[in-house]
From TrEMBL:
Belongs to the Fur family. Fe cation binds at H78, H116. InterPro entries: FUR, Fur_C, WH-like_DNA-bd_sf, WH_DNA-bd_sf. PANTHER family: FERRIC UPTAKE REGULATION PROTEIN, ZINC UPTAKE REGULATION PROTEIN. This is Transcriptional repressor. Signal peptide: none annotated. Binds 1 zinc ion per subunit. Binds 1 Mn(2+) or Fe(2+) ion per subunit.
Length: 151
């Protein structure tokens, strides 16, 4: 679904159209490289500024990868993730468990939601096998006695 919004610069429209064609999130750096490979004359700073404007207008959403890099999609690409804290792999979740809550909040608080994010962090199956047995879930959730006594 191609969206051309009035009041957007040609670069902002170009970036929005490009994001609509993607199936997965993309970093600003990779977006810049992709746009340049299609012979679009655009600077990296312009890409960052355009993404920020599109985000503030409710057209683009940003999520942060485990390496700290921002990843962008259109708000129409509604997706949630399970993200491995060790290898950084993100696994898409097929359903949205909070749509009903979003609707209730919008109605009860007269708030317009452009998008929401939901992401769970943990270890994927292969990374769980790499974690030493001594670091099982019970032990990682405990505070050491010597730390808890220093109040």
């Amino acid at each position: 679904m191609s969206v051309v919004k009035t009041g957007l610069t040609r670069h902002q429209q170009s970036i929005l159209k490009f994001l609509e064609k993607l199936d997965s999130p993309i970093s600003a750096q990779n977006l810049y490289v992709q746009l340049r490979s299609t012979n679009q004359r655009i600077g990296l700073a312009t890409v960052y500024r355009a993404l920020e404007v599109l985000k503030l207008r409710g057209l683009v959403q940003r999520r942060t990868a485990t390496n700290g890099e921002s990843l962008y999609t259109t708000v129409h690409q509604h997706q949630h993730y399970l993200t491995c804290m060790q290898c950084g792999q993100s696994i898409a979740v097929d359903s949205c468990p909070i749509r009903e809550l979003e609707t209730q909040l919008c109605q009860s608080l007269s708030f317009k939601v452009y998008y929401h994010t939901l992401e769970f962090f943990g270890l994927c199956a292969p990374c769980q096998l790499e974690v030493p047995q001594s670091l099982n879930e019970d032990e990682t959730n405990r505070i050491p006695v010597e730390l808890s006594s220093h109040s």
